[in-house]
């Protein structure tokens, strides 16, 4: 029966007490606690740091850390670190990277790096009065945040603009202070949120101390960055020749292939069911780099999906252009990434991932992550419009199925050989193990 009692004081228990308490909820408490203890880092100091990333940590949850070599991006070769659990993603990224490395690689440019934050507030004194005083409020906001922005300004960033937005057509008396920021190589969430809370204080103080505002009511509802950054965007593309032979596929000629590929991508531009899966394939690559470098994949995904709906209908983030004998596959995606701050230099593997990538700045990391997204998108659409996805996918999934049936290393070798020419499924693998056991 489900125990509905409220747990109190959990965060105050020490780690062993937490593990004991949680273990008692499971059918095999010893298995659970042993699995958790085994997940701890061998160096207690490192484990303590992991524990301190988040409250109530009792163990580590492992995800594979893989490498996709041969990413040639703007003429420089990279090995990409990818943190992902899905079997075929690293293989798909590597396959596409090698193919395109032989054809000039990925080309990439950052279109903008601007971040946004908002103070949402209500005010019953009308837009005109607020607008008249806003230049003064704005100057006070800039002056009051000088200490917070000093360091960022030394690095060339800071507050770019502060504007007043009238939202009363949506909600009565609702307005925004909308600010734009340049946060240089940091993702900037803490910097932006600190500035916004200071803007909110300034606004509140102005409303209570300025005579012209007397008798009206101003309420700050909330101050928070927006994860939607449509002006923090990277464009990445590959381009290849359309020849008479079979550059892209063994079965389809180049002309047939690019036509099928273009149609596959266009479907994701007009149909949101397909677009969601298409974009998910893009984020297979992007998220894996974002995670490996200690960045916030939820922010990156949320922003990308909002951007995919910017014209009113959710659609593909990538597109195809065919001009003459040139096939171009382009991904345009917003992404707020950092290469300083946050976990980037605290998480041991995130720090090393950045080193592996040549310690990129935020703009370079955007180009790298988007190349991973485009590579995965290319591989997925290519498979879909040629031989289908399942054959390759299930081949990669074979080891997972063998592990479910507790196959030995010898059995795995035999199974991998056998399934080179057979269709992989749970039943087929189980039957095969039956014949060799
Ligand atoms: C699977 O993780 C991703 C794909 O479904 C993407 C796509 O359909 O384009 C293969």
Secondary structure category:
alpha+beta
The strands making up the biggest β-sheet line up spatially as: 3-8-10-9
Through-space gap between termini: 41 Å
CATH evolutionary superfamily of the largest domain: 3-hydroxy-3-methylglutaryl-coenzyme A Reductase, Chain A, domain 2
Return the average pLDDT rounded to an integer. 96
Task: Produce a short descriptive summary.
This protein is of the alpha+beta class and 437 residues long. It has helices at residues 15-23, 29-39, 44-53, 89-101, 127-144, 146-154, 189-209, 254-270, 272-292, 297-307, 348-356, 362-385, 390-404, 409-418, 426-436; strands spanning 65-73, 76-83, 107-110, 114-123, 158-166, 174-182, 218-226, 233-241, 318-323, 326-334. The chain contains 15 helices and 10 strands.
